[in-house]
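PROTEIN DESIGN WORKSHEET
SECTION A - STRUCTURE
LENGTH: 475
TOKENS:
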């Protein structure tokens, strides 16, 4: 007799595993199927985020940052250390250990919540049946009242620079390099290019990033992008804008790259080339032709605002559907869908999803950029406060950047918050909450912020919106 569940989730990344746990919290009988296999041959839950994305990249960003600061900043604190050396094997062992602990933790969470974790491939058939092909054992057909597709995404491959796992590599390969390349080329100055470019530049690689667009960080507020570009250049990240890669040929010693910019055809020789030009949804063998699932022209599963597909009782969430490819967006969709399945009212506020780049300085924002507000025609006001004027930032030796708040002129509502500077990824949470509650700058102005804290910069930026900053001259 075939097994049946209230909810079957295909994919155990941050979208799927969170949906599974939440559904189990609602008392549903849940199975979550995943086939992720790490390079040591072991299967693991957690998807891209835990195995080859958010978590390992942040582990390496932390290690490389500490190494860089030890060499460049500790002297200012009076800490004299000569000959600081990076042990790449130890750094990578730590990264792998963190990944192992966290992915193993999901198996534990499944057990505690009563979710049946199934290792293997899942495919949606007609009538909410799921074909499960385990890595060991026989294929079975599982029946479900509800199915959640959470199959995630994978790196886009450029036909002119195909991945070979050695010289022309993707983000996962880049996270697992065993030695610092002398030269590293990166195609794409997006989030991955900047984060992973920073890691290997701090460790000593000469990093060149080729970006097709003329504008740096086109999705960020222009003031933020300007400061960030200047800071990255100080860190010897050679970012070349308006550089469209035309060809890349891997040879014995490295990769010969040909790109075009406003001056014509250029060439670049690098030991390794990372291609980080975006990700695309994974839908291979995910559903049968007659299952009723529709893809859009870019390959994403078509869903409505509540992540419902065209098939009643079948949902899709995370990177395989429209919207930003972010772990926190994916997880929140998982929560929403599980709540909807349980008959609760649930919704996502797609307008206030925070974006964070874990570079140094960090970059974070939520809500609208100044250009977007301007385009909307709404009258607005802005306030900025530089970390240079923050006591805590000075004590941390991290004074680059600022907090910028954009608010509506008529009712003072906060429309966007943009931060470039220390701990921007942590500071942005206050801004997200403010936008979620439709707060005014006055709400932030009247909120007591601890002293000395970086969060005071958010407070002062809110004051600056009305020309009332206290620790920096108002414009
Ligand atoms: P995934 O995490 O991709 O998980 C999908 C899972 O489904 C996988 O385990 C896959 O094996 C499984 N699967 C697919 N099809 C099937 C099938 N048919 N049967 C069984 N299993 C299947 N986002 C952030 O918010 N913050 C960050 O700091 C961040 N850093 C990143 C750094 C890097 C280098 C990369 C590559 C990404 C980063 N991201 C970050 C993006 C983040 O990883 C994704 O947005 C997130 O993982 C999407 O979650 P998901 O559950 O939709 O998909
Ligand atoms: P991205 O979309 O952030 O950036 C890709 C960049 O490549 C763009 O700037 C694009 O203009 C450029 N590009 C495209 N084709 C090119 C070409 N032929 N030549 C030169 N440049 C080219 O994509 P990504 O950096 O690969 O990241 C993928 C996804 O992963 C992102 O959507 C992001 O949300 C997610 N991610 C998030 C984080 C984070 O939240 N901190 C970190 C890493 C990844």
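SECTION B - SEQUENCE
RESIDUE ASSIGNMENT:
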């Amino acid at each position: 007799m075939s097994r049946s569940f209230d909810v079957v989730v295909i994919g155990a990344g941050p979208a799927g595993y969170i949906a599974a746990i939440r559904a189990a919290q609602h008392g549903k009988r849940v199975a979550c199927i995943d086939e992720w296999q790490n390079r040591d041959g072991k299967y693991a839950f957690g998807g891209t985020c835990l195995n080859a994305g958010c978590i390992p990249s942040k582990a390496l960003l932390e290690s490389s940052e500490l190494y860089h600061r030890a060499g460049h900043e500790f002297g200012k604190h009076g800490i004299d250390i000569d000959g600081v050396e990076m042990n790449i094997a130890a750094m990578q062992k730590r990264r792998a250990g963190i990944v192992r602990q966290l992915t193993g933790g999901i198996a534990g969470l499944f057990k505690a919540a009563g979710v049946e974790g199934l290792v293997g491939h899942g495919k949606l058939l007609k009538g909410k049946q799921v074909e499960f092909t385990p890595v060991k054992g026989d294929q079975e057909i599982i029946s479900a009242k509800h199915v959640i597709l959470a199959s995630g995404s994978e790196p886009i491959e450029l036909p002119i620079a195909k991945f070979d796992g050695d010289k022309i590599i993707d983000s996962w390969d880049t996270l697992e390099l065993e030695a610092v390349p002398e030269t590293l080329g990166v195609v794409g100055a997006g989030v991955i290019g900047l984060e992973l470019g920073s890691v290997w530049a701090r460790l000593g690689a000469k990093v060149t990033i080729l970006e097709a667009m003329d504008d740096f960080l086109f999705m960020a507020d222009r003031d933020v992008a300007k400061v960030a570009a200047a800071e990255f250049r100080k860190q010897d990240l050679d970012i070349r804008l308006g550089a469209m890669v035309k060809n890349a040929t891997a040879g014995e010693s490295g990769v010969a790259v040909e790109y075009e910019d406003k001056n014509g055809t250029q060439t670049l020789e690098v030991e390794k080339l990372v291609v980080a030009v975006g990700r695309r949804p994974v839908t291979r063998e995910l559903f049968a032709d007659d299952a009723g699932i529709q893809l859009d022209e870019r390959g994403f599963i078509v869903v409505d605002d509540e992540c419902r597909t065209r098939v009643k009782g079948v949902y899709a969430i995370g990177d395989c559907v429209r919207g930003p490819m972010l772990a926190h967006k994916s997880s929140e969709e998982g929560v929403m869908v599980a709540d909807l399945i349980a008959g609760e009212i649930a919704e996502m506020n797609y307008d206030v999803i925070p974006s964070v780049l874990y570079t140094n300085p960090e970059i974070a924002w939520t809500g609208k950029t100044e250009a977007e507000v301007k385009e909307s025609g709404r009258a607005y006001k802005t306030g900025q406060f530089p970390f240079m004027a923050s006591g805590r930032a000075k004590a941390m030796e991290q004074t680059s950047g600022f907090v910028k708040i954009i608010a509506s002129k008529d009712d003072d509502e906060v429309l966007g918050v943009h931060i470039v500077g220390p701990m921007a990824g942590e500071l942005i949470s206050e801004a997200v909450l403010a936008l979620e509650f439709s707060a005014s700058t006055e709400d932030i102005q009247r909120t007591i912020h601890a002293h000395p804290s970086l969060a005071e910069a958010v407070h002062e930026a809110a004051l600056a919106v009305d020309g009332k900053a206290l620790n920096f001259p108002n414009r």
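SECTION C - NOTES
The chain has a mean pLDDT of 97.
The pocket of flavin-adenine dinucleotide (ligand 1) is lined by residues 10-16, 33-36, 47-49, 53-54, 57, 121-122, 150-153, 171, 192, 282, 285-286, 318-319, 325-328, 330, 358 (CB under 6 Å).
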